[in-house]
Structure formats: C-alpha cells, structure tokens
C-alpha cells in the first residue's frame, strides 16, 4: 500500500517536471526586445569575464616569474651563507 503511494508521488513529480520542461520557459524570438536585452546582458557578462581572465593571466605570469626567479636567487643566497660559514670556521 505504501509502495503504491510512493510510486504515485514519484510519477506525479516526474509528470510535473516534464510539463515544466515543455511549457515552463519560453524562448524570446530573435529581434524581440527580450532577446536584445539578453544579448546585451550576455555581452556585458562576456566583457567582465574577459577582464577577469586577463587579470588572472597577468597574475599567473607574475607567479611563473617568481617561481622561475627564485631558484637562482635562492642558490645565490645559499652560496653566500656557505661562504660566510666557511669564513667563520676559518676564523675559529
């Protein structure tokens, strides 16, 4: 008995979702004011996303430069510390 109610509820929900998918959202006709407004919104969003992508690309280039510059600088600092350590050992 309970199984029949569960099946009935699932069937009703699925049927309702099919109706919503078919009739729920109407597309704006090309050239209509709604379509033109949607194109403007999407164009603006595209510009914003392009700006964000450019900013992220710039930051990535900076990070790549830092990562590639660090080993040579780090190596120079280690060599300087080794030289300093060697000099201290010679003084002792």
Write up this protein:
It is a single chain. The protein is 88% helix and 0% strand. It has helices spanning 2-23, 33-91. The longest helix is centred in the C-terminal third of the chain and has 59 residues, at 33-91. The chain is elongated and about 95 Å long. The N and C termini lie far apart (94 Å). 0% of the residues are buried.
Are there runs of 5+ residues with pLDDT below 50, and where? none
SS-derived structural category: mainly alpha
Report the total helices. Answer: 2
* Average pLDDT number: 82
Give Rg in angstroms: 33 Å
Secondary-structure element pattern, one letter each: HH
Let me know the number of strands. Answer: 0
**Shape, principal axes of CA atoms:** elongated
Strand content: under 5%
Layout of helices and strands:
Layout: H1 2-23, H2 33-91
Descriptors:
2 helices, elongated, mainly alpha, 92 residues
